[in-house]
Amino acid sequence: MNIAEFFFLLVLLLSVAGAVISALAPAQWTGRILAICGTSAATALLIAAAIILAGHESIRVDLWRLPVRGMLRLRVDSVSAFFMLALGISFLPAYWFSDGYMRRYLAHYDPRSFNIFFHLLLAACALVLAAGDVISFLLAWRIMSGLATFPITLEHRQDENRRASYLFLAMNEAGIIISTVGLLWMVALAGGHTGFNALHGSLRHISPAARWAIFLIVFFGFSVKAGLIPLSSWLPQAHPVAPANMSAIMSGCLLNFGIYGIVRFDAIILPPISAGPGLVVLVVGALSALIGILYATIDNDMKKMLAHSSIENLGIIAANVGMGMVFTAYHLPVLAAIAYVVAMYHMINHSAYKTLLFIAAGAIDQQTGTRDMNQLGGLLKRMPMLAALFLVGALAIAALPPLNGFVSEWLTLQTILRSEEFTSHFSRVVFALCGAGLALTAALAVTCFVKAFAMSFLGPAHSEKASRALEPAKSARISMAILALACILLGIGPTWVIPTINRAMKPLAANLAANALVPPFFSHPHGNKDFSPGFMHDFAHIGAGIGRNIIPARGLVVLHQGGKSNPVVYAMSTFYMVGVLALIIFTTWLFVRWGTRRRTITISEPWAGGLRRLAPDMTYSATGFSNPVRVIFRSIFGPAIREDSSTAVAGHFRTAISKQRDDGYIVDRLFLRPLTATVNYAAKLLAKIHKPGMVNAYAAWVLAVLLVILVINRLL
Amino acid sequence: MNQPLNHIDQQIPIALRDELGDRVSGIVELESGLLLAAVCRADALPSAVAWLVEQRKYRFATLVVQALPSGDQLDYWFYKPDNGPWVKLSVRLSSDAREVPSVSEQVHAVDWHERQAEDLFGLVFTGHPKLGDFVLHEEWPEGINPMRPEFNVFKPMVEKEVDPQWRPEKILHTPGAFLMPIGPVYSDYAESAQFFLETVGEDVVRMIPRFFFKYRGVERLAEGRSVREVLLMVERFSGTSAVAHATAFCRSVESIGQVAIPPRAEALRLVAAELERIRHHFGLLSDMCHSTGMIVPSADIDIMEEEALRLSAQWAGHRYLYGLIAPGGMARDFSQSDMALLIAQVSRLADDARLLYERLQFTSSFLDRFEGVGVVPNTNAQRLGLVGPIARASDFKTDLRVHAPYGLYRQCPLEAEALESEGDGYARIRVLFAEVFSSVELINKAMANLPTGAVITPVEAVVAGEALGSVEAPKGAAFHFVRMGGDGRVARLQMATPSFTNWHGFHLAAENFAFQDFPIMMASFGLSIAESDR
Amino acid sequence: MFGWFLRGAGSRVKTTRYPPEFDSNVGISPGRPIATQFASSQEADNAAVQCPTQAITAHDNMADINVSRCVHCMACSHGEAAMKWQNDYDWATLSGAGASTTTRPFKKSLHIRLVDSGSCDAVIQEIKQLAKPYYNMHKLGFFITPTPRHADVLMVAGPVTSHMRLALKKTYDAMPGPKWVLAVGNCAISGCVFAPSFMAAGTVSSVIPVDVQVPGCPPPPLAILHGLLVLTGRAQEAPPHVTTTIAEVPL
Questions:
Q1: Contact at CB, B181 and A614, closer than 8 angstroms
Q2: Does B280 share its domain with B197?
Q3: Contact residues, C window 47-86, toward B, CB-based 8 Å cutoff
Q4: Quick one: B355 and B409 in the same domain?
Q5: Residue B171 domain-assigned (yes or no)
Q6: Which of A72, A115, A681, C188 has the most CB atoms lying inside 10 A of its own CB?
Q7: Which residues contact B50 (CB under 8 A, 6 or more apart)?
Q8: Is residue B172 in a domain?
Q9: How many CB atoms lie under 10 A from the CB of residue B359?
Q10: What is the pLDDT of residues A563-578, one digit of tens each?
Q11: Which tens digit of pLDDT belongs to each residue from A586-627?
Q12: A300 touches B at CB < 8 Å
């Protein structure tokens, strides 16, 4: 047993131990147990992942041979290890946060069962990533999905929660069934091999039709888990009702498993040979991003808003994966490598800031009793620490430099522009449209999180409880601080992060992305041989070489490094940016300070046009802030007017105007509801044909089904 | 009302007796049949008023409340657009009674008059759904009513401790709705008033106005003062329509004193009133152009407005024509050259305006902002009893110069009332321009055969009495009720101003509009707070 | 649109040359009575009696005028005891406890917030005229601003009604220092015809310190402009008025 395996075993043992202790210990200890056992398990996982990523060791364990065929194997390659890293980044703070957070449930619920499942969830997640063959993967996936359902229903006495968890269960089960079919079909086509490596080798020569079919089945099966359109209905319902630590896990890492499945099976094991599958993923990703952010912008429930924004972020990740697949199919390995690396970059970013924001939302909920942004406001003064940490998360998710969201979104948008390399006009058009969609998404994300921050933390408090809120427990602040630090580090250090991710994504990216994105401009003593010395000189002369001898690494991220004929470089450096920003802010501060040194500063109340008293309900509400978006995209939201009435005395004196409307979820409207209607209709039709109690009829049905299966088997 | 009309509807007195039966008593015909006064039983008031307005097509003019020693008396004044006799329904309360049935459900135009009387006299209008916080804001102490005789006019008001939780009544129930407060200190040059916009973001569903920030108590201050002193206030409470209000007040005083003013004065009054109308309309049009950011046309109109102001000062000494109207006629006469100057200048201004109007009609970026903005449908205009250019833009005939002509307007009638049917901002612009042109015509017509002679009939000792003077002010119909005490001093002054009437309509017209249209709507209504608040 | 451009470019310059030149156009000011010597003390008394606002006081055969009470009612402009009238407009004076002129940085750029505390609308129209082509105060560096946060000068018109008192104070408090106050119109200076009263404080100076008073009812645009020049200490840029006493108005 090597060290990596030791730590991996430790993860499993600690999780189980946590579950056992939770079952035996009194309910009051719940949070503390999670904080101790869970955090150590997550730490062990991070160590194991780091060891494997560093390239020293890997995990190769054969468990036992199955009676039918194949063997259960644990194989952790660098891809899995990278996903484990994201897992740990999300789980560690979420466990730590539980310490103070779980107290709020003690009065009404017994959180012990929640605790048991929450502990085991980490082990199950780790096992999914460690699975080295289809059978153990499916087994672990099964267990993980099942375990994830229970923590959502902690507040099981509320109808909304029960409904949401049933929906979660039903849609995820459907996803598992679909992907199981796909995976087993793969195994069948591969002649019974179940190991991932063996599958990859033996599936090389299957027919294009089978490729397409497997791709579609596997992709849509896993896209349920990733919450991509059109299978995302469960997400905005299930994420908000779970306790905040569970929501953080669901958004921060469970969604990643969908991406893991798609990357593992659709990109690594069965790499695309035509552009089609990649374009499908890209379009689905871009649409998810746009729809996700639109709904996030208009939603005033903070957790629901974050859930919708998860759809957006997973959409961006999927779009990158799709781009990678298209680039692969067009034999552009460098671009493909970049796209995959960016996908993974965005994924780990999302894990960091979304966990942070969900924890913040949970803490706000705990301290104020509401998640409705119309009821919040003025929290900056009440909880400055939380506000600062939330602001880091909000700036990161809104993709503002120099934070991590900016790096991955900048790379995403730059990568999508590289469709100029294609010869196919169709692909170009698709890329252009998706690029426009993603750009709009990025803009709306800023609106969305400006609203979230402004309406919750600025202005006057819109409710009594919000005006009396206090800072959350230390555990919440520490866990958020860890994540905020991660956001900042991931933001200012892309030149370290990109090579790491590239190493992790070796099966897909070789070493191409790191070389392309982070060229050794300044570390190489004689410059890069791809560029003429004159260009290098000019380039250094205009200031790009400033950090050459100061910063102990390459500071720039370069997207298009041009060629000899066109030495245009699109480059970006959050590292330098931080320096420059700090300098600008500091000098401005000095300047202002100097200029106003003799001034006295008086603080007066806000100017409200001489109004006698400015009440909180005379300032913008969250609904009001996002109303322009609601109006512009009316056709997407398809609001159902529930009430639009006005009453008046004697036809003159208006006494009440009531307007109630529900913004419908476009996915439900266009996909889920027609689907259920069709299924219901078909079921009714079958029920009509089917005559109960007739043995002959049953026999005939069995025969017919058998025939159909035989025919299909023959055809394939 | 001091000269008989041509055709008086003789049916009205008979109908009044027949139809209202025992509800009214003491029907008298005053001023040679021009005014029917009747005393109405308080409980029968709503039905009597409803009959008058719905069956007989009467229009509400003003509600005059008088705190007499014998008890409060409420006079509801009505007029008929087609030269019918005016009707005054009086309700007399016993000395300690304060309750009157509200008629604002039957005649919506009475709404604000009742709210005003509730604040100022402490009357209770039973059945009125919305009383309180109107003229007197929340800092005014409860139970003290400034128009009651025992109130000390010269003692400064002591503010009451206000409730920090007080809010205007919100009626919009929708998630995330909020009030957007505007004012009282807002915009560049706006007069002080407050508007709460009930909104959920972009679209304003409804507006809650709060006026009377500028309430100076002119009507209360006038009590016990001489006619000369009151005239100063009447001119100055709303400086942009000084001539109109001074004329209305003087006409009341002349009517009480039975003074016939010389024909030359009548003609000069018409000239002054129309000159004021021209200048006033230029001001409104300039505001409208400003509100849409049309720099050049607004500068054009600004130049015309200033030239009209200079012309006024050159002609009559004062830029806003203060001190021109006097009880009994005009305070001064004009020479032939003065009048020639006026005609020449006014014609030139009219030509400039015509040119501008033609250009504006072809500027789509201007018209787009006004078309369909702040629409007042004809039914609403009737229901709210709107007056002036706003009513006429909704095809509601209200011009007193036509429908209840006074002074020289009888001999020298307005050719045609400017009417438009859309009721939107653009219709109001067309009405304003048309009125400018018709005013110029009127001036020319009046000057064509300007009578000679004196310009003032000295008003000797004014006897006790009461009268209602009406004029068509630039913003619409204005009614001044004056009661003179026997000592030659004003005992009661009540002014129903067009802005007061029309603001009532504005806040109902301002529903379901886009927030960025608010300044344009305000400009296109062009109402004065000073005139409304008094 | 282009037509409007041509129209704008083609118009003559209308703007007044004041300052530095004295503007002697007809109709820019209603003028006001000035101290007049009469033949007898009886005539002076008559002149005082005819004033409805007690703006004229008689000393022997001199009739003095209290500018801040004169409302240009024209009663003393004609008749037997007519006062001398003068068609000037440089009436503004430094006044009261607050009285101070602006410091150097504000000489050429001054932002003004207007508060209507119960004015008659005519005075607001006259202030509006200042920003319009004929007076164009922008050329002198004076600007109206919608928020007191940007304002250096508070221009107050009206007798300060009790409902506006709080708003006026709040506006004054919302202004950053250094700040100055300009009381425009007689009702802002003395309450004029609306004071004493239960609703009006009567004077702006009883609520906030006033630096410059601009009398007039309403003060014509040039008088207000003169007030601003007095405030910025630039009144000497404009020449003293040429005495253009107008003759008695014919009656």
A1: yes
A2: no
A3: 52-53, 71-75, 77-78
A4: yes
A5: no
A6: C188
A7: B103, B106, B107
A8: no
A9: 16
A10: 555 555 667 778 878 8
A11: 999 999 989 888 878 788 888 888 888 888 888 888 888 888
A12: yes
